[in-house]
Amino acid sequence: MAEKLTDPEWKKGSAELLVLSLLEDQSRHGYDISKLIQIRSGGALKFHVTSLYPLLHRLEKQGWIEGRWVEKAEQRRRRYYRLTAKGRKALGAKQQSWRDFVTVISRITGIEHA
Amino acid sequence: MPDWKTVIRERLAPLHLKPAGESDLTEEIAHHLEDCYRELQSGGASEQEAYEKTLLELDDLYPLAQGLERNQRMPKHDHVPAGDSRPGNLLQDFWRDLRYALRALRHSPVFVVFAVLTLALGIGANTTVFTTINTLFLNPLPMQNTAELAAVAAADSTPTPRSAASFPISYADLKDYQARNRVFRSLAAYTSPRVATWQQTGSSERLFAELVTGDYFSTLGLKPVKGRFFLPDEDSTPGTHAVAVMNYATWQSRFGGAPDIVGKNLRLNSIEFTVIGVAPPGFIGLNAVFGPDVWIPAAMAERFLPTKCKMR
């Protein structure tokens, strides 16, 4: 799916779920998150820095993720984000909500999962 | 490599971010853009192409402005250049200045303590000096012929005096001077204001009373605004005439200028004094700066003063 999603509302509605999902297994920095979204969506989804970082700050403010500056040898310091226990719960709820939504839409439209 | 931090700071300037928040955000976004730029170059893009494509990331600042929490941003205001004469909103500017001052003060508590102490000492010293000048020069004694007044005090007359200061005269000496006086038309005496307890029903207050000889007010040539001053016999027999003359300011402030003040009773140090008159406005006695609330006859000293404070 190389075509970008044209409806920004879709992206907006799923942004939190996407970021939280990518942090489920490991902590990542902003660029890593952005690249993963772009790659895994086949280029259909892309977050500009002006959208991504306010989102990360908002999630941090909500206590769902935690940002921490990490310095590694011979590398510049970077801010890594990890999922908090509260964020993990929120992710679970969002995943369930998304599944329910897709199921309902599928039932109505007759579109099956790929 | 372009200086991404500078580029970002320029772009973020209109958002008025708080310095700490801006610093972190700038660094974070700068790293992101550096990664983008490197990746584009490693993909074959020229420096210029990579720069332009990376800059596209910052094209739309609206989500950033909307997305950042309100507390990460400074309040919007115009920078006022030096010498700007545009009229401002007085109240708004004052409120902003006040908040800025409080924020600045909160960061320097030690400075605040020293500043407050310095101000307190300065104001205290100024008040004292002004009160003295006001009493002595701006509002002198409310009487005529002040040039004819003279202060009499005792002094150490030995060849090598231990102190140049004058001493109070004892009551017995005063009586002696009065009897032998050939110099002055009259000779009166007064003490410094003494603390007295004004006992009322259910409460008590502190008052200051000055003990004076019976001819104190007549010597000064004063006339009462209400009632009368002491009669000669009210200061002749010890402890028999519990009468008092009230300070005009005390009459106004503590009794609201009550027209029936003359004849009222004041219980001072467990003695019922009768108010016989009110001194003229502005007269606070001869002790500069600090005056009494009432004047009472010196003959009442024995009964009025606590044992250790009897008049000498």
Describe the structure.
The complex is a heterodimer of chains A (114) and B (312). Chain A is an alpha+beta fold. Chain A has one domain: Winged helix-like DNA-binding domain superfamily/Winged helix DNA-binding domain (Arc Repressor Mutant, subunit A, Orthogonal Bundle), CATH 1.10.10.10. Chain A is built from four helices and three strands. Chain A has a three-stranded antiparallel beta sheet with strand order 1-3-2. The longest helix of chain A has 25 residues, at 85-109. Chain A is globular, with a radius of gyration of 16 Å. The relative contact order of chain A is 0.16. Chain B is an alpha+beta fold. Chain B has three domains: 4-78, no CATH class; 96-139; 171-309, no CATH class. Chain B has helices at 4-12, 19-42, 47-55, 62-67, 90-106, 109-138, 171-180, 216-220, 248-255, 301-304, and strands spanning 194-200, 203-212, 226-227, 243-246, 265-268, 271-278, 294-297. Chain B has a six-stranded mixed barrel. The longest helix of chain B has 30 residues, at 109-138. The chains are: A alpha+beta (114), B alpha+beta (312).
What is the topology?
The complex is a heterodimer of chains A (114) and B (312).
Chain A: H1 8-22, E1 28-29, H2 30-40, H3 49-62, E2 65-70, E3 78-83, H4 85-109
Antiparallel strand pairs in A: 1-3, 2-3
Chain B: H1 4-12, H2 19-42, H3 47-55, H4 62-67, H5 90-106, H6 109-138, H7 171-180, E1 194-200, E2 203-212, H8 216-220, E3 226-227, E4 243-246, H9 248-255, E5 265-268, E6 271-278, E7 294-297, H10 301-304
Parallel strand pairs in B: 2-7, 4-6
Antiparallel strand pairs in B: 1-2, 1-5, 3-6, 4-7, 5-6
